[in-house]
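Bumping my old thread because nobody answered last time. Still need a sequence for this structure:
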């Protein structure tokens, strides 16, 4: 059985652990097709539309957070920004990347 959480609720739950990692953080553009999003998400279509307009005119203001585990990127937050980029046909998205061991990834997936 799949459990669908509203994106903002999940973001609130996951944000603290991602930000508390004591790892070097780097900002970089990552191809959308290289970011795995392992948990189902629901997005608010109106929020995505508003972000599409903002991103199209001003660019992305706030990078999404991703974990880099064994050379793979995993996204758990920023689902509205991610979807807006997809719908705009963008190939990459600005990310705040934190390297983490597989044990941290497993905690996010639990």
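Sorry it took so long. Here it is:
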């Amino acid at each position: 059985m799949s459990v669908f959480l509203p994106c903002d609720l999940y973001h609130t739950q996951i944000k603290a652990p991602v930000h508390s990692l004591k790892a070097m953080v780097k900002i970089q553009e990552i191809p959308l097709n290289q970011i795995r999003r392992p948990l189902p998400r629901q997005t608010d279509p109106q929020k995505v539309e508003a972000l599409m307009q903002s991103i199209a005119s001003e660019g992305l203001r706030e990078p999404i957070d991703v974990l880099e585990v064994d050379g793979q990127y995993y996204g758990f937050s920023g689902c509205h920004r991610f979807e807006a980029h997809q719908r705009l046909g963008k190939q990459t998205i600005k990310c705040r990347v934190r390297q983490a061991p597989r044990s941290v990834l497993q905690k996010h997936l639990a």
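Confidence is low (pLDDT under 50) at residues 1-21. Let me know if any region looks off to you.
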